[in-house]
Inverse folding.
């Protein structure tokens, strides 16, 4: 299989095109063009999307080279570009030189456009089996054809074949890495990108894409390493800087994340989303004043910024500015009353101003939206305890225990022991207190302080 490549003109002032157009407008005198020149002219107009001009050049070619098979191939190519794949296939079926590179690709493209995918694959596999020249290039060109029709798995198949024939074809390796990711072979994609990096250690694109794959797989440490290499090669890549910031944030490296977000702001346009991220970094670092400052800047750029309103509310809660906090959280709820966590913050603000009944309603609304909240269920139970509704409290403590799969609820068995005691269930409060003591040796002392008059168990 020999590959026939035409020379692509660098610009519209290509001498051949100028000569042809000059002749066609009758201002030129030389009207003879050989077959290769006419092929070049036809392809030039096809690349420009000028099908009519391409057809005109071909018609002229047939007048001076009647019946030329190479021109018939160009005719099939024009028909294909016009969506007439059936007629294109008829022409190709009459062309006897089946090993011609352009014909092989064109026939494949025609079959794909006719949705005869299996036939196209079979044809290509047969060509590959019978040839051994430039097969990596052929496989790459086949992949482009199938990718254009979103036949990703088929493209992947041919790229895998192509790698076997030339494992150092970087263009092919890039497409193989892309397709591997698209067919959910992330490890394979990383392998291929690492192979590219081995061939070209300064490939910014490969390093960045490795970072993206690791980031998608929540392997933030590996992603961070890849982004740092990419930035060492291209320090002004704003997107890479942003992804690095996200990695640091996910790894709880809030100071590093903050520095990266600030650098992104210097490299790119200031955006309300980035100000939001900066605010959250300051919030995690417990610098609530700075966090509020950036949240407010973000809010100024987007007045319906639910996250900024919530962030300001949380920071004010942390500063025990409950009334001011409630104002922002109310605005957040107006924008989105389906967010369960915001109802929790609202309840905490109401608790801060001693509105326990309002807080209870807010907690209940949060549980209605998301029942899988052990902390919120325990908060509801605690309010019921304060209201001396001990049986109701026990109900919610029990629900909280069921949801607490990570065993993170401190003191829940102690509170349950108190509730059981208040309902007169001696066996249950003894059992709960014993469990409380296992988690906290001080639990027994606290219990008897809450329930004076009882004798210690020992």
């Amino acid at each position: 299989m020999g590959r026939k490549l035409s020379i692509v003109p660098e610009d519209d002032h290509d001498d051949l095109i100028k000569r042809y157009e000059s002749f066609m407008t009758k201002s030129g005198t030389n009207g003879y063009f050989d077959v290769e020149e006419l092929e070049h002219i036809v392809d030039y107009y096809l690349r420009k999307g000028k099908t009519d001009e391409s057809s005109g050049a071909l018609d002229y070619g047939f007048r001076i080279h009647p019946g030329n098979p190479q021109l018939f191939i160009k005719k099939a190519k024009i028909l294909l570009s016009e969506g007439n794949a059936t007629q294109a296939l008829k022409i190709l079926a009459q062309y006897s030189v089946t090993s011609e590179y352009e014909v092989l690709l064109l026939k494949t493209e025609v079959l794909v456009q006719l949705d005869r995918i299996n036939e196209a694959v079979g044809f290509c596999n047969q060509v590959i089996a019978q040839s051994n020249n430039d097969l990596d290039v052929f496989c790459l060109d086949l992949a482009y054809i199938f990718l254009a029709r979103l036949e990703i798995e088929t493209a992947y198949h041919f790229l895998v074949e192509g790698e076997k024939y030339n494992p150092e074809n970087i263009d092919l390796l890039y497409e193989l890495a892309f397709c591997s990711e698209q067919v959910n072979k992330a490890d394979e994609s990383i392998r291929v990108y690492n192979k590219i990096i081995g061939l070209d250690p300064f490939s910014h694109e490969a390093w960045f894409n490795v970072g993206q794959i690791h980031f998608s797989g929540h392997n933030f440490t590996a992603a961070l390493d890849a982004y740092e290499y990419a930035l060492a090669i291209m320090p002004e890549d704003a997107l890479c800087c942003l992804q690095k910031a996200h990695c640091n944030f996910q790894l709880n490296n809030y100071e590093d994340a903050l520095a990266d977000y600030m650098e992104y702001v210097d490299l790119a346009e200031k955006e309300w989303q980035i100000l939001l991220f900066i605010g959250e970094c300051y919030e995690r670092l417990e610098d609530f004043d700075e966090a509020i400052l950036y949240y407010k800047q973000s809010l100024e750029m987007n007045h319906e910024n639910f996250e900024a309103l919530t962030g300001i509310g949380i920071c004010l809660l942390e500063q025990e500015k409950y009334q001011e906090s409630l104002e922002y959280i109310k605005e957040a709820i107006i924008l989105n009353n389906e967010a369960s966590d915001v109802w929790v913050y609202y309840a905490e603000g109401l608790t801060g101003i001693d509105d326990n009944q309002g807080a209870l309603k807010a907690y209940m609304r949060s549980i209605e939206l998301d029942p899988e909240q052990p902390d919120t269920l325990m908060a509801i139970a605690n309010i019921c305890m304060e209201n001396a509704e001990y049986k109701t409290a026990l109900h919610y403590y029990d629900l909280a225990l069921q949801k607490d799969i990570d065993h993170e609820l401190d003191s829940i068995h102690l509170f349950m022991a108190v509730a059981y005691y208040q309902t007169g269930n001696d066996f249950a409060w003894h059992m709960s207190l014993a469990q409380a003591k296992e988690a906290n040796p001080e639990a027994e002392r606290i219990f008897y302080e809450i329930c004076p008059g009882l004798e210690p168990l020992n």
User: Anything to note?
Assistant: Confidence is low (pLDDT under 50) at residues 1-13. The radius of gyration is 35 Å. Residues 51-64 form the longest helix (14 residues).
